[in-house]
Amino acid sequence: MHEDLICRPLREEDLHLLDRFAQDPAMLGPYAWTGFSSGLRRRWAETDLLGDDGGVLAVVDQDKPIGLASWRRMAYNTTSHAWNLGLCMLPQERRKGSGEQAFRWLIDYLFAHTQANRLEAHVDAENVPARTGMEKVGFVCEGMARGAAFRNGAWRDVCLYGLLREDLHPAPPTPARV
């Protein structure tokens, strides 16, 4: 357990982390790199990367940024949406439990401060460590989207994971009538 781990809005001194994830393929690893990206610093300057449709937070352990946690709105109809979650940890921080703890923090935050009933995540089918991590924090693999994500010159299958509010706090059983 990382007792000092928190998620917080990005600060100017954290922007190097954004740059590294956007410009260095090794930072995201073999399952998430989809090419160079830009505009994150501009978006941070305009919105702090926080808004009604999602956000990005720094994952910080002992005052040191070690990753990014994100969420974005996924509309199901005009009145219902879910949050799609993402997590990028520095390579040296992976498989140490800090990503799991950050995801638990983000789950608790979104269920406490938004009306969404559903959280979801899309995970590359070949990314066994991420899939295992999703299941550790309570997500259920609900199916496979075949050929849904283009990465490294090929279309890849993606596992759809879901978590409902009631999965964390199930309703008590209804007493049997006698």
UniProtKB/TrEMBL annotation:
Entry-linked InterPro entries:
Acyl_CoA_acyltransferase, GNAT_dom, N-acetyltransferase
Q: Which domain of life is it from?
A: Bacteria
Annotated N-acetyltransferase domain residues: 5-166
Fetch the SUPFAM superfamilies from UniProt.
Acyl-CoA N-acyltransferases (Nat)
Name the keywords, alphabetized.
Answer: Acyltransferase, Transferase
**Any Pfam family:** Acetyltransf_3
- What family is it from? Belongs to the acetyltransferase family. RimJ subfamily.
Q: What's the protein here called?
A: GNAT family N-acetyltransferase
